[in-house]
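Predict structure. Chain length: 403.
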Amino acid sequence: MRVLIFSQHFTPEITAARARVHAFAKGLAARGDDVEVICEVPNHPEGVVREGYRGRPSVQKELDGFSVRYVWVKTSPHKTTGNRLLLYGTYAAMAATIGCAARRPDVIFASSPPLPVGSAAAIVAARHRVPWVFDVRDLWPEVAVALGELSNPRLIRLAERLERRLYASATAITTVTEPFRATIAAGLPDPGKVSVIPNGTTRMWLEAGEAEVTRSELGLTEDGAFLWTYAGNVGLAQGLEAAIEAAAALGDGYRLLILGQGPALAALRERAAGLPPGQVVFQPPVEPELAARYLRASDALLVPLDSRPALRDFVPSKLFDCCAVGRPVILAADGEARRLTDATGAALPVPSGDGAALAGAVSSLRADSALRERLAVAGRDFARQYERERHAERLAALLDSIV
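Prediction complete.
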């Protein structure tokens, strides 16, 4: 089977899309399928195209048994609504052009957000007269509106209309949580075409949970401080302001490591500036293999979500990787993520956005080694249930059924 995959973000960018789609592409290629991914030239989150990808309309590479075509996009380090629309629009135009000229696939798989990824897939599917699957990782534009990233009423209406048309056009739809599935299915004449393939972790993260890592080898201070770590996008949806409040309340003997980059980083640095040196440490994002070592070297891990109601249906993809590395996880989120971990005991829950409750959770973990061990074991068991390799098999079965 020849599978053409569209994704705005992909390896080597460090994003949730990269983790999900790369695992799918690798899994399909491993069983003998001919897989090609069309994505943007790597530029996220800096908004600057990386060396080796500049000055050409497209760059082709081979990764893990499949091919990747990186296409030119209009980038900018300034994250305004206009610049985002140019980024999304130029990707969709380039991806559709190259996809239409490519060898005919048997099926197309497109992972969003943003929505224009689905537009490119729909155009190429019509050109080649093949079925296509729409993978919905976030409900967009709903989440963009909730986070204040999209406020123009006309653009919102256009995005909602495009969303409905893409749902109707797709042969099948996959999404990441049961609440997402119910929301999408409610607006379709054929709700049965929507299925859940959740996010998850990989064997690399699970194997990292068996390794011994010292902080000194990572450049972290070995001073006996209780190290609790957040690794991932530092954006509006994470609600990390509560983590800075918790760090201030905890005081000496605790260190918060924020390993990541994003639009909320400058404001968080400003909040942390008044705290004693070393109480909050910021470091740039690193490749997953190294990120897993940082998590393994920590005493506890933080998985947060902002308290906005629109985010209650989300399950952060980092939850599965954090659980996999065998360290106790604090889940500062409500809704679907809380439901999953409460059912399995995989994380210590605190209300989203509550800095005092978060400080109490970190303090209780330091004081109770049995609790730390219990959470670490339950987290590993939880993560094993969500291995991405199994999810790739489920996607393969779906693609087989519609081809």
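Summary: Residues 45 and 56 are 20 Å apart (CA to CA).
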